[in-house]
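stage 2 :: seqdesign
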């Protein structure tokens, strides 16, 4: 597969076309952003750690029957993925209250959520990713209702699989965000799964092992990502 020109540059990843229209290359950069891109820093090794972390998780999910865009790891910072039409909706599942849920509803950080909470957000930095529901998605045509059901089901299936994977390695999957797209008409998991898009706490100490270390200026961001990777067996 030959890499051609840059198609799009996101906040942490760039997308390149290839000589095959069905595939694009995701290039994971060291740029780390928070607060809709207001805080941006370069964190050495982040691109490589997230690329390898994401490859491991996508392959794990794929082996468990979740359709994903992931094809293969190409090198330290790049992966080959299916060229999907992205659905501009973020799917969030929360097992423990933290972040925006606490700010919005005034509940205590760390409260266990049983059953887990599901939320949709519109992917739009200028509007600060507002919370939306299924009616907005249907009315504004962001996705078909059957595809919305599939996204929701797949997001919960991922919760079962990854909560266990992290629990077995001594961590709590507090919450996470997934994005989906359409590939040849089918709903497929896209974007990335890494500590940039989820909250992971050490099960014993509740130490934060995710991007909250960056958001809150706690330091040791990449060291924490590497610790998570090491615990679940990602080859770095
Ligand atoms: O992170 P923040 O408090 O602003 O938002 P949240 O709604 O509490 O985020 C829930 C989960 O989704 C966290 O694990 C975030 O890291 C993740 N998320 C993300 O990856 N990208 C976004 N644009 C929003 C949330």
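stage 2 :: out
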């Amino acid at each position: 597969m030959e890499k051609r020109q840059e198609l799009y540059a996101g906040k942490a990843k760039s997308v390149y076309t290839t000589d095959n229209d069905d595939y694009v290359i995701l290039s994971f950069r060291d740029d780390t952003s928070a607060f809709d891109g207001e805080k941006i820093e370069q964190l050495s090794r982040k691109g490589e750690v997230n690329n390898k972390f994401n490859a491991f998780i996508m392959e794990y999910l794929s082996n468990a029957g979740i359709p994903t865009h992931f094809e293969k790891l190409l090198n330290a910072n790049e992966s080959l993925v299916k060229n999907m039409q992205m659905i501009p909706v973020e799917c969030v599942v929360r097992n423990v209250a933290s972040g925006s849920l606490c700010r919005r509803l005034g509940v205590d950080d760390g409260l266990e959520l049983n059953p887990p909470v599901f939320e949709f957000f519109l992917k739009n930095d200028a509007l600060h990713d507002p919370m939306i529901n299924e009616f907005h998605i249907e009315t504004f045509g962001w996705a078909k209702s059957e595809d919305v059901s599939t996204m929701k089901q797949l997001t919960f299936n991922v919760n079962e699989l990854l909560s266990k994977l992290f629990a077995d390695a001594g961590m709590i999957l507090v919450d996470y965000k997934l994005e989906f797209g359409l590939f040849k008409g089918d709903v497929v998991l896209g974007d990335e799964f890494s500590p940039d898009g989820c909250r992971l706490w050490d099960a014993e100490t509740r130490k934060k092992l995710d991007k909250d270390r960056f958001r809150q200026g706690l330091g040791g961001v990449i060291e924490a990502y590497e610790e998570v990777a090491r615990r679940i067996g990602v080859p770095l």
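stage 3 :: structure notes
- The pocket of cytidine-5'-diphosphate is lined by residues 90, 92, 99-101, 129, 175-177, 197-199, 211 (CB under 6 Å).
- The two ends are 24 Å apart (CA to CA).
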